[in-house]
Amino acid sequence: MAVFNRLESPRKIEDAVYDVIVPAGDGWMKELEPGQVLRIVDLEGNQAADTLFYDAENPEDHYSAIATMTGQGNIYLTAGSVLRTESGKALLTIVADTCGRHDTLGGACSAQSNTVRYSHDTLPMHNCRDTFLLQMAKFDKGYLKRDLAPNINFFMNVPVTPEGGLKFDDGVSSPGAYVEMQAHGRTTALVSNCPQLNNPCNAYNPTPIRILIWDN
């Protein structure tokens, strides 16, 4: 299912109500109001942005990879994809996408998965799971480790092998590629700008991303 559905946005950067650069390996967490549009920009290309979404009114109803894939009949995310929660609720819709395909199978790197996939000496390396937990603690609205779930990897290329396994391949995004999502209700967004150095998801060189928000 190698779907690439590219669609540019009509929104202008100067009209954004929020604009921030997230350095390589750093994280970001913020609530979106109903109708607001979130854009994540891969500034230098080939950079994975691990992302989770929550119903801000009911954080236990978080993004569900299974409900999202089942609802669209496809394992990849692209323009037109509806991001659904565990209950099946539509949380956001991807309204623009110049990369064309995003992963929702590979999950987030952690200290534990790094040691299993690569080597024991990677244990102290920075990872997305720890970034998620740090951002939750700083956000200070009751989000805890129990609220972590299988996440989206924007701009990340994780093809499925004929045997049903996963491969972490070179990214398919280019400098300036972006993905835009419109929130259906109050939604909490959590991003880890992936620090992974052990596979090609970041071209072995993590780089910054840019995050913008429009009111509609």
From TrEMBL:
Highest rank taxon of the organism: Bacteria
InterPro entries, alphabetized: DUF1989, UAAP2
Domain DUF1989 residue range list: 21-184
NCBIfam families reported for this sequence: urea_degr_1
Record-given protein name: Urea carboxylase-associated protein 1
